[in-house]
Each structure stands twice: as structure tokens, then as C-alpha cells.
Amino acid sequence: MTTAPGSTAAGSSGKVAPADMIVKARQSLGSRIAERLSGGLVRVFLILVGLFWLVPTIGLLISSLRTPEDMSASGWWKVFTQPSQLTFESYQKLLENGDITGSLVNTVLITVPATILVVVIGSLAGYAFAWMEFPGRDWWFLGVVSLLVVPVQVALIPIAELFGNIGLFGTIFGVILFHVGFGLPFAVFLLRNFFAEIPRELLEAARLDGAGELRLFARVVMPLGGPAIASLGIFQFLWVWNDMLVALVFTKSSSQPITVALQTQVRQFGNNIDVLAPGAFISMVIPLVVFFAFQRQFVSGVMAGAVK
Question: What is the distance between the alpha carbons of residues 235 and 244, in angstroms, rounded to a whole number?
């Protein structure tokens, strides 16, 4: 016998209990805890945690707007009582520093092609492994996935020797190739699993309409795989932009990115702190802008991979 919401049901003692109280009693412990934790107090706590996480970023921004004398005399929080300390002189000196500006351009020249190549090649390979039949497909995919366990440190010296023999060591193109090579296994693994969830009937309908493989990939698979591709692009962009190990090994002074340039500036910290602070902030804020610009696509891609 069932009871409608708001009706009553007789218990073992003969008393009548509301149906909603019976449903609430049957709720699991986890559901009740989650219901209690969804209140306003928890939201306030999460907001405070987020603000606390932003404190280093805010401190770096304020430090980049102060003179070296003010930074040596007091902490960055003094700005709130002495706002006259804020100035853009450090950013002006940064633009006049050829090492920092050149390394920032090198970072863009390395990150953008490495991200685009990984996304394009990974998408094509992911589609091939998901929907195209060819000999040894599963074994080839297993080989690609096995490359995920290869650490970057193991390949630094062999690939450095190889690039030195073919004339790519110390060039931007060599760094791009390294990042593409180590970014493709994860890209193929991620996109293949995402593309495999596309309904087969949708692809068969497009083939019946006369669509070839390339047209099918461009008109059907790529639009449906937009969230996963955006997630991959964000991951790859952040990894390449923030990388210092690979750049430290494979670049020279003329091709070094911003991470290596800032590390070099740290050695002379007392002489160029006015350049180091704004350079570090610019190096950090660009990935944040990229992430927040594609945040919606990133969340959609993560959720699409988690929910079948």
C-alpha cells in the first residue's frame, strides 16, 4: 500500500505519521549530511576559502605596483593604508627589459603551436581509434596509452642528444616537438574515450547522407566533442605555459620562455625586483584568463567524461 505525499500512514503503535516524515526517516546518512551542509554557512566558508586562495595573487599584483624602495621597507598590505605607493613604473621598466619581453613572445610562440597541434592530431587520432577499422587498432591504442606512464625526465637526455644531432637543440621548434610528443598520449586517450560515446546511429545517418570520414569528423564529431576538446586545450596550454624543466634543458638565451627568464632574474633578485614582480604576475595572469575564458567548456567536458 502506498501513500500520497502529505497523507498519513499507520505505524506499529497505531499512531498516524505523515508520509513525508517516513520518507525523511528512510533517507541515508549521507543524504542527510549533504542536506545539512548545503546551507548558507557552508557557502560563506567556501567563499572565504576562495578568497584565502587568491591572497598570493593579490599580493603579487600589489607588489608589482610598488617601487623597490617600498617593497624593501614594508609588506604589500601597507598599500591599504598608503594607497599613494601604487605606481606603474615597474611595468614601464618591464617593457624596456628586452629579456623579459622577448621571453614572453617566445612563450607564446611555444605554447600556441604546441596546444593547437596536440588538439588537432589528438582529435584525428581519437576519432580513428574510436570509429575507424584498421589492423591492430586495439594494440596500437594500447601502445599509445602505455606511453602515459613514461616520465618526462627519462626522455630529456636521449631527446636532447637526438635534437643536437639534427640541429633542433636550442630552438623553439624543438621545444614544440617535445611538448607535442608528450602531450599526444593523454590527448588520444581522452578524446578516443569521449568520441566512443557518440551514438553510432548518428554517424551511420551521416554516412547514408554521403558524408565521408573527413566531413563526418568536421561536421559531426568535432561539434559534439567541443567540451572535451576545450578541456584538452586548457590542460595542454597550462602545462606548456608553466613548464620550466623542458625549457631549461632545450632552450638557449634567445629561445627561452618566460619561466626560464624569471628564474634567471631571481639570481639577481636584489637588483631587479621591480622587473621580477610584474613579470611574474603577467606570467601567472595569462593562464588564469585563458582558464576562466573557457571555464564553462572545461566543466562541460569534465562532466561529459564523468557521466555516460
Answer: 16
